Amino acid sequence: MNFYRRTQTIISKVDVVTTSMGNGINVRSFAKEEKLDIYDWPINTTLLDGKYDIGVVVSFGRLIPEKIIKCFPLGMINVHASLLPRWRGAAPIIYTILNGDLTSGVTIMKIHPRRFDIGEIVKQHSCSVGKDETADELKKKLSNMGGRLLIDSFKELTRNLRYAVPQSENEITYAPKVDKNLSIINWDETDSNSVYNKYRALCGLWPLITTWHGTSIKLLKVCNYQTTNIDTQLKPGDLIYDKQSQKLFVKCGGKGGYVSIEKLKIPGHRTMSGKDFFNGFVYMKPISERKFNSTHVN
User: Formyl transferase N-terminal domain: which residues (predicted)?
Assistant: First the structure.
């Protein structure tokens, strides 16, 4: 609400429509602290007619009916955490990191009924994505950017809406809702960059999952590992310990490469480093049995 306090001449009234589930709980709590009027979703149009100029949607995850959009003389706009039309859908930040994108940003767009993320672009702003940046870190960066861009959109709002441009039909990609199965590593098919990108995309949500001799284990911290002095006969999933760097690394499939296991968790044991895992579990096995396998999430 700092933007709201600094722009009283632009925004004279803000109220909130939210749910009582998920992120809606946090939104509701914040709105109460700010002494904003709170409406429950789904909302009756009689509560909106003639009271507001424009509706704003952020991370709501629900299609807005046409009758709701029409309650606002200027329609409704959405703050979306990607450079549309790239990454339409519920999880744009995760897919940005998962695919190793080096650029991201925020889009302010018009809301249309019946379909997500297809509206005309009111404003966009881009930013770089660091090669080691996580989804949580990018989310914080885009949240701040989105707030500033939204306020900027309110300046000359009618003009900005009038000159909104249609999205390109040639560069559309989708970012559907993700589930826990995405955290599984298929060592045979996944190269080191993809494993590391998956870790960066999911580390604030779920740990990566693999199997050690029939036991599902959680990989809590993974890094891309650069090395040249490696046995070329290694197969995907094979574990090797580098005494010089004191790192445990895994051979990856696909285009190849290696990732180091910095921290992991085995059921019934404390969280441990890759070195401790090697000394306590891997070292006692024959070399042919020192490997991870893929697993399934129940």
Answer: 49-152
Architecture in CATH of 180-289? Roll (3.10)
Sketch the domain layout of the chain as residue ranges. 3-163, 180-289
The dihedral through the CA atoms of 51, 54, 57, 62 has a sign that is: positive
- Picking from 267, 154, 141, the residue whose alpha carbon sits closest to that of residue 215 is 267
Distance CA 135, CA 140 (A): 9
- Please measure the distance between the N-terminal and C-terminal CA atoms of the chain and give it in whole angstroms: 41
Helix axes 135-154, 192-202, angle to 10 degrees: 60
pLDDT in tens, the chain (298 residues): 554 555 545 788 899 999 988 889 999 999 999 899 999 999 999 999 989 999 999 999 899 999 999 999 999 999 999 999 999 999 999 999 999 999 999 999 999 999 999 999 999 999 999 999 999 999 999 999 999 999 999 989 999 999 999 999 999 999 999 999 999 999 999 999 999 999 999 998 999 999 999 999 999 999 998 776 666 689 999 999 999 889 999 999 999 999 999 999 999 999 999 999 999 999 999 999 999 997 655 5
Cα-trace Rg, the chain: 24
Instruction: Evaluate whether 3-163 and 180-289 have a shared fold.
Output: no
